[in-house]
Fold this protein.
Amino acid sequence: MIGPMTRSLAGIAWPIRTARLRLRAATPDDAEDTWEFRRRDDVARWLTRAPATFEEHRRRFLEPDSLRKTIVVELDGEVIGDLMLQVEDAWTQAEVAQQGRGVQAELGWVLHPRHGGQGYATEAVTELLRICFDELGLRRVAASCFAANESSWRLMERVGMRREVHAVRDSLHRSGEWLDGMGYALLAEEWRRVRPAGAESGGATS
Ligand SMILES: CC(C)(COP(=O)(O)OP(=O)(O)OC[C@H]1O[C@@H](n2cnc3c(N)ncnc32)[C@H](O)[C@@H]1OP(=O)(O)O)[C@@H](O)C(=O)NCCC(=O)NCCS
């Protein structure tokens, strides 16, 4: 059985290659490259944080809690995006709390708009799901976004995630507007039905 200690990015044999991309755990040196796209208004408008300066971004990026859940996406050696994989406990009743420890993950993604529209996010997130289910042995993954962020929820649908929630005006945007929120999820068993273990490429290589 996979224990909570192995359910972290540190236990994975990085880098992992997909057909066109290279995924690896983020390092402090990635602060600058990720700022290149996270600083953009068309990206930051959808993100939880919109740092005003590189220093603010860097401070947050380097926080151990942030760094250890960040994966960077490279195309031909250039960092073109980042992914979040945050392993979490499931909600459980008290007597079975131990069984719910570290069994699921919250996911997130950002792609440099310069590289949008070519399926790179689909490719990276498809691999992220494989990592979650095959490598980390998680039972469920979930992600959420503003309903107005159509690019993000369409991405979730492309990779096979299932819409669970369309909440009405539950999410406060920094513009001051309460917006609809979307929640998507996928269970390991659902993922295996369409993508049996070992059927996809992906694996550690330099
Ligand atoms: C969400 C986000 C990652 C999606 O990026 P994207 O470019 O739409 O996604 P992909 O890279 O998978 O590209 C998909 C597009 O490429 C096309 N495409 C081309 N080749 C493709 C391929 N081989 N595989 C899949 N799609 C392909 C698809 O048809 C699709 O085009 P469409 O949008 O016209 O239908 C991006 O918009 C983003 O970073 N947004 C800002 C940050 C953000 O919102 N993050 C999420 C917060 S909740």
Q: What stands out?
A: The pocket of coenzyme A is lined by residues 43, 46-47, 109-111, 116-122, 145, 149, 151-152, 155 (CB under 6 Å). The chain has a mean pLDDT of 94. Helices lie at 30-38, 41-44, 54-62, 64-67, 120-135, 150-158, 188-194. Residues 105 and 165 are 17 Å apart (CA to CA).
